[in-house]
């Protein structure tokens, strides 16, 4: 299958710290690529340099449908269909749920206000956010619904490739189940997903392939069952 998103030799250092080291991967349309690794192994930095939010790679290429995008600006990459969520809480607590998503839509889409508002409402619906709570102030929502607002903010860009950074952290098992259903629904609509997740049952259940980073380096990749049984992967987790 043709790659939708591909990375070649991606690297990023912070001073003397090599956060991402010469990473190659490719992901096909409708595929879920899981990304695991201990804390500080470079997972979020990889999302940052793929989307240029907030910074670019030092070296390497990113290709979308075979076209290099690493020289484009962050909003151009988003418009081409690569959207991401953040590991840290990124909702504006004093804005309503729909205004949070609208802000994301206005940041990345060309549409007028009405079109952007429609996209925001559609994105909340797609994320499974309750229709009755669109106007609720985000800061008053429970963590699960704030997470859905974050995901909807990415979905409002109508992405082809969605990068999810630890969507299941601090959720209950029932809520994690709903994240799993949501990912399955998005994939069913043809979306391609990169998923960083510490909740291994979720990661192994939804990922077609898994890659594991350690100290910024790709130490294993392949089918989830093979990867989590890989001695180098077990060592990376136990060694911390
Ligand atoms: P992960 O998401 O796998 O937990 P990160 O990508 O957040 O890891 O971080 C990888 C390494 O890069 C860590 O050592 C982290 O401290 C460092 N790092 C990440 N972002 C920055 C930054 N903006 N400035 C300096 N160091 C950073
Ligand atoms: Mg991270």
From TrEMBL:
Gene3D superfamilies the record matches: P-loop containing nucleotide triphosphate hydrolases
Domain ABC transporter: 5-240
GO CC aspect terms: plasma membrane
One matching Pfam family: BCA_ABC_TP_C
Annotated keywords: ATP-binding, Nucleotide-binding, Transport
Parts of the chain that traverse the membrane: none
Superkingdom of source: Bacteria
Single GO MF annotation: ATP hydrolysis activity
Signal peptide from the UniProt entry: none
InterPro entries the UniProt entry points to: AAA+_ATPase, ABC_AA/LPS_Transport, ABC_transporter-like_ATP-bd, BCA_ABC_TP_C, P-loop_NTPase
Coiled coil: none
The protein, known as: Branched-chain amino acid transport system ATP-binding protein
Species classification: Bacteria, Pseudomonadati, Pseudomonadota, Alphaproteobacteria, Hyphomicrobiales
């Amino acid at each position: 299958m043709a790659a939708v998103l591909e990375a070649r030799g991606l690297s990023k250092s912070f001073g003397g710290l090599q956060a991402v080291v010469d990473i190659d991967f490719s992901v096909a349309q409708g595929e879920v690529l899981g990304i695991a690794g201990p804390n500080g192994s470079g997972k979020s930095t990889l999302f940052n340099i793929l989307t240029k939010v907030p910074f670019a790679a030092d070296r390497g290429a990113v290709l979308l449908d075979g076209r290099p995008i690493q020289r484009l600006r962050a909003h151009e990459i988003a418009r081409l269909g690569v959207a991401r969520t953040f590991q840290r809480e990124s909702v504006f607590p004093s804005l309503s749920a729909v205004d949070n998503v609208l802000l994301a839509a206005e940041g990345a889409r060309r549409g007028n206000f009405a079109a952007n508002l429609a996209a925001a409402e559609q994105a909340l619906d797609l994320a499974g956010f309750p229709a009755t709570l669109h106007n609720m102030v985000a800061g008053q929502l429970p963590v699960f619904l704030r997470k859905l607002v974050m995901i909807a903010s990415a979905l409002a860009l109508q992405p082809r490739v969605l990068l999810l950074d630890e969507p299941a952290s601090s959720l209950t098992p029932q809520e994690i189940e709903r994240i799993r259903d949501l990912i399955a629904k998005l994939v069913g609509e043809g979306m391609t997903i990169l998923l960083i997740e510490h909740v291994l049952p979720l990661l192994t259940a939804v990922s077609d392939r898994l890659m594991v980073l350690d100290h910024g380096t790709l130490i294993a990749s392949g089918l989830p069952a093979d990867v989590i049984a890989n001695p180098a992967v077990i060592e990376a987790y136990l060694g911390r």
